[in-house]
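Exam revision sheet. Question 4 asks you to relate a sequence to its structure. Input first:
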Amino acid sequence: MVFTVRGRTVLVTGAGRGMGRLYAERAVREGAVAVVLWDVDGQALEEVVAGLASEASTLHSYVVDVASVESIRSAASAVLGEVGVPDVLVNNAGIVRGKYFWEHDHDADIDLTLRINTGGPMHVTRAFLPAMMERGTPARILNVASASGTVSVPRMSVYAASKWAVIGWSDSLRLELVAAGHPIAVTTLIPSYIRTGMFEGARGPLLTPLMEPEYVVDRAWRGLLAGRARIQLPWTVQLAGTLRNLLPQPAWDVVAGRIFKVYSSMEHFTGRSDDSPVDGRKA
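Answer key, structure tokens:
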């Protein structure tokens, strides 16, 4: 049977703005019976809920800090008791820090990036997965990684590290669920730069323009429903990964640095130009 969200429960982290909001809108549009919105920014959640009012879907918003295991556990317990077991988890929340590694602050940059980008998806999934497995019905998990988790990018070392970890964990989890016989498909989204404001000032490498968030969400959503293991956007992401594995390191450095301009893509990074938070925090 084709998996759909109609009549099912969808949970989205980082749902207060950007792509998280788009995922929530898609769930409502396709008939989810309940859409659970998590974000650290309560005001942003209120605005999303007001804009998504629907007769077909019930909306449940929770102020959750995915950098905190305690916050995740508490909110997950509330969701399981008040809404039920999610059928779809979208681990979307994330932050980016764009500067040289030695300029990163221990707490506000290194630790926070790893706790949100890497620990967040793991702890959110761990909080719900036992109930999803026990129920035994088809389910979906989408983990948002990044093309920066497949190739090295100067001025983004900690962010790249956090996304490398997500890719390895996400695909390992997918294989574990298959081996254990659970009908829960795990999809890893690996996009290049997206026009959300989160990567303001970043320049797309050769043949890799900044993508519109609506396009990425559409491709990710369709891949999620189909249970695809990996979605790499655009096509040059897969090409770069292939070349990285085939070429000797010095040759790849020339290709990535001088031809594709991957190594200089963050030279003009500024982050959001306004004062709005990125998934509840300043970029």
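Marking note for examiners. The radius of gyration is 18 Å.
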